[in-house]
Prior knowledge:
Structural class of chain A: alpha/beta
Number of helices of chain B: 11
Helix content of chain A: 25-40%
Radius of gyration of chain A: 21 Å
Helix content of chain B: 25-40%
Order of helices and strands of chain A: EEEHEEHEHHHHHEHEHEEHHHHEE
Bound molecules: adenosine-5'-triphosphate, iron/sulfur cluster, magnesium ion
Oligomer: heterodimer
Strand order of the largest sheet of chain A: 6-7-8-3-9-10-12-11
Number of helices of chain A: 13
Strand content of chain A: 15-25%
Largest interface: A-B, 62 and 64 residues
Order of helices and strands of chain B: EEEEHEEHEHHHEHEHEEHHHEEH
Radius of gyration of chain B: 21 Å
Strand content of chain B: 25-35%
CATH class of the largest domain in chain A: Alpha Beta
Number of strands of chain A: 12
CATH topology of the largest domain in chain A: Rossmann fold
Distance between the termini of chain A: 24 Å
CATH superfamily of the largest domain in chain A: P-loop containing nucleotide triphosphate hydrolases
Amino acid sequence: MDKLLEANNLTKRFSQGNVISRAILTAVDNINFYIKPAEIFTLAGESGCGKTTTAKMILGFEEVTSGQLLRNGEPQTDKEKAWITEGVQAIFQDPFSTFNPMRRVDAYFHETVYNFKLAKTKKDAIDWIDQKLQLVGLTYQDVAGKYPSEFSGGQLQRISIARALLTDPKLIIADEPVSMVDASLRMSIVNLFKQLRDELGVSILYITHDLATAYYVSDRIAIMFRGKIVEMGSVEDVLMNPRHPYSKLLRDSIPQADPNLRWDSRVTLAELEHEEYSRKGCRFAGRCPEVMDICKTVVPPDVRIDDVFVHCHLYEELEEA
Amino acid sequence: MAESKQVVLRTEHLKSFYILDMQGTQKVVKAVNDVNLEIYENEIYSIAGESGCGKTTLLKTLFNEIVPPQRLVDGKLYYRINSEEVDVTTFSAEEKRKLRMEYISYIPQGSMSVFNPVIKIKGTYEDFIGSHVEVKNRDEIFAIARERIQELGLPKNVLDVYPHQLSGGMRQRVTIALASSLNPQIMIGDEPTTALDVVVQRGVIQMLKDIQKKLKNTIIMVTHDMGVHANIADRIGIMYAGKIVEEAPTEKIFDMPLHPYTQFLINSLPKFGDKTMRESVPGSPPSLADLPTGCPFHPRCPHVKDICREKMPETIKVDAEHKVACWLVEEEFNG
Ligand SMILES: Nc1ncnc2c1ncn2[C@@H]1O[C@H](COP(=O)(O)OP(=O)(O)OP(=O)(O)O)[C@@H](O)[C@H]1O
Ligand SMILES: Nc1ncnc2c1ncn2[C@@H]1O[C@H](COP(=O)(O)OP(=O)(O)OP(=O)(O)O)[C@@H](O)[C@H]1O
Ligand code: SF4
Ligand SMILES: [Mg+2]
Ligand SMILES: [Mg+2]
């Protein structure tokens, strides 16, 4: 099978020397996944579970501690530039930090067009930029001569997506691209992702906490918890029939757009995340409603059930040899 | 409803624009354009609307913090202070400062900006609370802060760390705890749960509800997640192009949305188990610097009629609690 991107035992450790902890934090812990061409793959999970760190390793912004990243079966040379020119683009969570407040927004577009030699004349450049902006519902007129402060958060995010589209990438790493975008635009952006996949064969690593759009748009999903992938499979399997207790909690925590379905139970949130990262057995043991003794001391096995991967003691007897 | 509720914040024809000088020509961005609100004591009022429709600008205006190029162009803003309604737009900078934190507090969009990255959380607390509490005693300030932090289930030692050492969710909870420290009458939150993962978001919603219940105060918040609105709000205001186009109790907004824009908002939401194409609102939002004539939604509205292109519909009361500004509803209602 073609794999556009593959992560093998990908690991990232940070040493954190501070007041709460003077320890090593394994932000990404031996994870394995792949992304096929023309596929939307979602990485979901709690704040601080290692999603952005994974994205940064793929983009070469963060060094890999151990493990491997393969692009079309070839090892990554860990040169950020090599990746970008090969057609990987990124969209980040906070559009305000993507753009320098003192620099005009259109300058970023012209810079990319110039760097990648996407147009010969000024007019061609503007046409090219305008075409990409139209994909996100804007025009060149809307951005020409303007500074980031003249746009709202959602408008800026659409602008940064248009900018990522300039080089016609094969893979887009989208880190929380819709978290600052309103519901209706959110749908237009995920519909745009679908369209990029179906019509242009672009793959997307969609990092999000919005499981409703993840279900709607993606083919497969990995749920991460404290650096580990705890469940992975098709969105149908993982979101319609979650097996890992953390996946179940995630599912139940999606606010339903129906005032008759308000939550009637309370959630317990983690204390400082370091405590969970340094847990011996299952890192979810402190909050898991189905916790058993073994979970507190022994790292759970990786189990395959049908086409779903689950990292949990509950499914031990099903473990394949 | 029989019982009349006490109004804690009221606006009359509030207009707040960005007035920009573009190489000699003036550009006016009408971000808050004739907004009339009555917000009650002891309620959570939340505002929904598309990106760029003016939600943040409205919140800043309600907070009475207007920094150029934003200007208050017209209208009145009243707070109910010590059982008396006062127009706060005429307040001096010092009078405004006094109200902050104690009477009204603000949780900005993107809580990162609240904290100074090079000082511990403690330092930020000191800056915010220190200038209000009469006591000279630092220890007392921190006693107040610690108490609230613990009540809200946050670890005590968060005061002793630097902002970057906290996760986004924890930082957001600390920001909310800080905003509630001096028991304000009104708390304003701009997307307080956006950018958080769902479990933490649920925890933050729970925390906001807990605070509101405990203080019996008013929370005015903005979010574009209709699921969050459904879970937290008592009443919802739908904002479009600088105007509140519909307002009703939460159940009514979801069960019986009347404005065509609200109907799109509700129907475009993705649902589990249903992958069929969801259409977002057609077209794109109007430029607030160049608004269409008449109803600002008319270029995108499937029900548009001649009058919609000419005149802005009045806000009519469909019933005591449900207000809409749309010609369609107006005609049905007034015959
Ligand atoms: N440069 C760094 N030095 C030390 N620790 C770090 C660094 N970057 C991230 N971490 C820690 O690694 C963990 C994973 O962080 P990461 O940003 O990858 O999470 P995330 O899943 O993207 O979270 P969010 O949903 O909040 O964006 C966190 O505990 C974080 O504090
Ligand atoms: N400082 C500013 N100068 C000029 N125009 C501005 C400024 N701040 C905001 N605007 C414009 O005012 C309008 C309303 O912006 P506002 O930030 O209130 O929107 P919003 O509804 O909060 O959007 P979002 O959901 O994306 O946060 C937008 O068109 C924006 O471009
Ligand atoms: S007033 Fe007219 S254009 Fe505006 S929403 Fe109603 S029907 Fe549509
Ligand atoms: Mg992240
Ligand atoms: Mg805003």
